[in-house]
Amino acid sequence: MANLLSLIKLRKHNVDEKQKVLAQLYREVETIERSKNTLIERLRNERSVLDKHGTIEMYAYFGRFSQNIHRMIERLNLERQKLETRISIAQDDVREAFANMKRIQIVQREREKAERKKADAKEVREFDEIGIDAFRRNEEEQN
């Protein structure tokens, strides 16, 4: 029976690589969320300053500023949606790769179990032969 340990190692490496890709996608989502939060906080701060010290000219500029911030947030939301789709696909890839690795590990475990059973049976037969030979010699010596 072939040893599957190198194939298991290869599958584990494959799972690890797919997990790294998934982790990178999660980091990208976190970066987008931080960017969104920064934009939202910036908008709040500008609004706060405007409410305290605003002039008509500042209100006019704030309107365009606010629109630009909202457009950027919308772009970030779209980017996040794309990443969520990629994350879903990557999660499926990780699950599939992990399942493939587990199947091979199970086959290897079963093969090892069968080999142990076969070796144990051979050992029992050898001990039986030794016991029978000892019994025969003992019988011959008594006769």
Map the helices and strands.
Elements: H1 5-53, H2 56-142
Structure write-up:
- With 143 residues, the chain is mostly helical.
- The chain has a single domain, classed as Helix Hairpins, CATH 1.10.287.1700.
- Helix content is 95%, strand content 0%.
- The protein is built from 2 helices and no strands.
- α1 runs antiparallel to α2 (56-142).
Features:
143 residues, mainly alpha, Helix Hairpins, 95% helix, 0% strand
Q: What form results from the Cα inertia axes? A: rod-shaped
Q: Helical content, roughly? A: over 70%
Note the run of SSEs as H and E: HH
**Distinct helical segment count:** 2
Major β-sheet profile: none
- CA distance, first residue to last residue: 48 Å
Domains (count): 1
Low-confidence stretches: none
- What is the SS-derived class? mainly alpha
Q: Gyration radius, to the nearest Å?
A: 35 Å
Number of strands: 0
CATH architecture, by name, is Orthogonal Bundle
Q: Which range does the strand content fall in?
A: under 5%
CATH class: Mainly Alpha
